[in-house]
Design a protein that fits this description.
The chain has 282 residues and is of the alpha+beta class. 35% of the residues lie in helices and 17% in strands. It has eight helices and eight strands. The longest helix is centred in the middle third of the chain and has 37 residues.
C-alpha cells in the first residue's frame, strides 16, 4: 500500500515519518543507491565530501532550455534551483529509480514464469486455496502452501449469475446469495497454464453440482459462505441427498412381492399364480 521510493537530491522528507532529514538505506547493501549512500556517509564522517566519478558526471543528462517558457502557477511553489553538483545527483537519482523499477519487474516476471512452469506439470490436480482478490470477471485464488496465484473466471463458478460488489469486494449470486469474498476458502482445479502470458487458470470444484438454494434451506437458513469451507458444505449436502435417495428406493419385502389387488381379483378360480419377477430371478 506504500508508494515506492524515489531517489532524489532534494530533501522532500518522508511522507509518514516527517523527519527533517531522511535517506533510504538497506543493510546489507543490495542496490547501487545503497552503495552511494554508504560512500557519502563515510565521507561525511571523515569530514570530507564524496565526489561523484567523472563517468557519472559525463553520463548525466545536460539541462536544456525549454522550447516554450513554462506557465507559472501563483498558487504553486516554484521548484528549487539546483546547483551543478545537485543537478548531477538528481540525474543519478532518476537513473537509479528507473533501473530499480526495471529490476523489480524482471524479478516478478521470472518468478511468475517459474510458477507457471511448476503448475504446468499439475494440470487437472485439485488444491485448497484462499480468495485474495475479487473482480467483476472472476476471483484470484492463492493456493495454500504453494503461494501460487491463479484466476477462477466468473464463467467457471457454475450456472449462477454473480454480481460484483465493489464496496465489499465480493461476488454474490443473485439466486442463492452465495458469496465469494476476500479470505473465502475454496477448492480449485488447475485447468490451464500459459507460459507466454504468465497466467494460470483454475476451475471451481463441485460448486456447480449442488443446488445452493436447497443447501441453505437444509442448514436452517444459514448462508453457505458462513461455513468453514464451501467444499465441506457441498459434501454434506451431497451425502444427505444420497441417503435420502437410498431410503426412498428401499421398500419392505412384502410390498415388493405383493401382487396388485386388481390382478388378484381377476384371476380364475383355481388358477396357478404367476411367480413374480423377483421369484423368477431367484
Amino acid at each position: 500500500s506504500m508508494q515506492q521510493a524515489i531517489y532524489t537530491a532534494t530533501n522532500n522528507g518522508h511522507f509518514g515519518l516527517a523527519y527533517p532529514a531522511y535517506t533510504h538505506f538497506t543493510s546489507p547493501i543490495r542496490r547501487y543507491p545503497d552503495l552511494l549512500v554508504h560512500r557519502v556517509i563515510k565521507a561525511l564522517l571523515g569530514g570530507k565530501r564524496y565526489p561523484l566519478s567523472k563517468d557519472m558526471v559525463a553520463a548525466a543528462p545536460k539541462a536544456r532550455a525549454p522550447a516554450r517558457p513554462p506557465k507559472v502557477d501563483a498558487n504553486k511553489k516554484p521548484p528549487p534551483v539546483l546547483s551543478a553538483e545537485a543537478a548531477v545527483w538528481e540525474a543519478v537519482g532518476v537513473h537509479c529509480s528507473a533501473n530499480e523499477r526495471r529490476a523489480d519487474e524482471a524479478s516478478r516476471d521470472v518468478e511468475a514464469w517459474l510458477k507457471c512452469r511448476y503448475m504446468r506439470e499439475r494440470l487437472g490436480e485439485e488444491f485448497n486455496g484462499t480468495v485474495n482478490s475479487a473482480t467483476a470477471f472472476g476471483l484470484f485464488v492463492t493456493l495454500e502452501g504453494l503461494y501460487v496465484e491463479g484466476l477462477v473466471h466468473i464463467t467457471e463458478l457454475g450456472g449462477e449469475y454473480f454480481r460484483f460488489d465493489d464496496v465489499k469486494q465480493e461476488l454474490r449470486g443473485e439466486r442463492t446469495g452465495l458469496r465469494y469474498g476476500l479470505g473465502t476458502r475454496v477448492r480449485v482445479q488447475v485447468s490451464r497454464v500459459d507460459l507466454d502470458s504468465r497466467k494460470i487458470d483454475f476451475r471451481m470444484v463441485r460448486e456447480d453440482e449442488v443446488d445452493m438454494g436447497s443447501l441453505r434451506a437444509r442448514r436452517g437458513g444459514r448462508p453457505a459462505y458462513a461455513a468453514a469451507s464451501a467444499s465441506e458444505e457441498l459434501d454434506a449436502v451431497k451425502k444427505a441427498d444420497r441417503v435420502a435417495k437410498a431410503a426412498g428406493k428401499r421398500k419392505p419385502a412384502a410390498a415388493r412381492n405383493a401382487r396388485p389387488a386388481s390382478a388378484a381379483s381377476s384371476a380364475a378360480p383355481g388358477a396357478r399364480p404367476t411367480p413374480s419377477k423377483t421369484a423368477r430371478r431367484r
